[in-house]
């Protein structure tokens, strides 16, 4: 449902610049550009976003607000820059050049925009005849076309967008990956002490911003915080001038616009420029792995599963946890080739733009043995990126997210892009510093389109003395 907003009419006055010839020598005239004087009610970005929320609460998530004869004006600072091709026909505007409270995306059918609207330039937007709603998961201002919001026509942009003489250097708002939220959407943010994950940086197929064979419209690359190891996505257009630049191997800080992916269900960061990545620390931050010593050969079987005779529906009854924690339906399934059975997963054709899926073993009792080791076999199929990792916990209760997980230094084999790789042994991985009852977790994290590598897991075994 579209909400129509009406208020009393005001006269709009625009004072144009003037110039004159000061003497008979016809010197270059002095150009005097006067600050536009605009009449109307100036309202904040935050106020119209709150009005949109009210409309959504009343009429549902697809509700929109149409401005008609309100003579309302919106002010803000441009924080997006399309000179490198990473933005297209849109301006991201926030309410202040520093410490912003809110931001909005403005769609304009003009490319490029940076020649008219500089980074940090203050602009005023006439809201009448424009519509506010959610597109691709983010608040968007433009023209209503049926039930979608499209770009303002080029011939109308000067009617709706008035440039100010004020230009400020935008100061990114520093936050943590754990703090990413709707409150920071359409704002210029900075993340400190981060790096691109090693699975991207050291993978010759994916170690650029957006020039991999699997990058259809965007290249989505994971960055992680060096301390929390939480990750998020840096998304780069395949039309960006720097799409073929290699991902920096160092660590440091980066800034970009917080937005969402095409489907509106996952946070993305979009860079204004490759210079937005300031990775000056030559040393990468090391991932923390379980550090147990000793990998001796042992003959006491503590746990074993080769999935022979097991069906997917049997996993829960056998104590396994098979869960998609991002809310999708993709999960592990039992596959079979000849007489060999295995746990299998692939995001291909899942239509899930982001997924994190766990397969977790039943509880394994380590109290009766010592010098335990883990081994298993892994096969990578149609490999377009490494998105499998192996973890362990000894405090699992009833939720994946509340358990304390420690990554295992497990070798994940690489496979061919267009066929099957070989089933490859992994381990032994020492577990002898763990006590009590443990669970091993296999985390599959990616998104379609993007990395959708298929994995087969088999012969998962723990031995001890």
From TrEMBL:
<dbReference type="InterPro" id="IPR043744">
    <property type="entry name" value="DUF5689"/>
</dbReference>
<protein>
    <recommendedName>
        <fullName>DUF5689 domain-containing protein</fullName>
    </recommendedName>
</protein>
<dbReference type="Pfam" id="PF18942">
    <property type="entry name" value="DUF5689"/>
</dbReference>
<feature type="domain" description="DUF5689">
    <location>
        <begin position="70"/>
        <end position="273"/>
    </location>
</feature>
